Amino acid sequence: MIPKEIQNALNKQLNLELYSAYYYLSIAAYLEDKKFDGMAAFFKVQAQEELGHAMKFFNYIAETGGRVILESISKPQTDYKNIEEIFQIALNHEKHVTQSIHNIVDGAIKEKDHATKVFLDWFVNEQVEEEATMDKYLHMAKMIGENPQGLFMLNAELGKAQS
Q1: pLDDT band with cut points at 50, 70 and 90 for residue 162
Q2: Which of 66, 75, 94, 145 is the residue whose CA sits 20 to 30 A from 135?
Q3: Which residues make Cβ contacts (< 8 Å) with residue 24, sequence separation at least 6?
């Protein structure tokens, strides 16, 4: 059985992962409305990944004798000024998720909860990839700005990567 404080933190993270999926779906909906189908596909895949992460937390909490508690999911932002803003917000969000996971790792180490620490190692590594991906596309969006040809190419690249 995991310590109660760790169980609470894992439940909070589970709900953050669900919010992440919801948030990325909101971005996908915005991008589809703007006819950026490739970028929308990218964020739909991101949403699916976040749901997968949430299920890992769900299953771990249940398997360790904890109780899963689902909270309300806040309405995410629905409008953006440009593609750069989308990737900046996504990168900032991934950094927030990373910090949250690191805080749970710190708590697991403090509580000598070795199983949870090992479980979280995968997420620590995954967040390196998540941040790097968003950072990469943020840099591209900054270079492109509002250039239609550049946006077309980024949309095509992200769409091709998802097929």
Answers
A1: low
A2: 75
A3: 43, 44, 46, 47, 50, 90
Q: Which domains does the chain have, with CATH numbers?
A: 4-162 (1.20.1260.10)
Nearest Cα to 134, choosing from 76, 80, 98, 87? 87
Give 161's pLDDT tier (boundaries 50, 70, 90): confident
Which of 29, 26, 31, 13 is CA-nearest to residue 126?
13
Interatomic CA distance for residues 144 and 150, integer angstroms:
5
- Name the band, by pLDDT with cuts 50, 70 and 90, for residue 133: very high
Asked if residues 103 and 97 have their Cβ atoms less than 8 Å apart, the reply is: no
Distance CA 76, CA 25 (A): 9
Please give the radius of gyration of the chain, using alpha carbons only, rounded to the nearest integer: 17
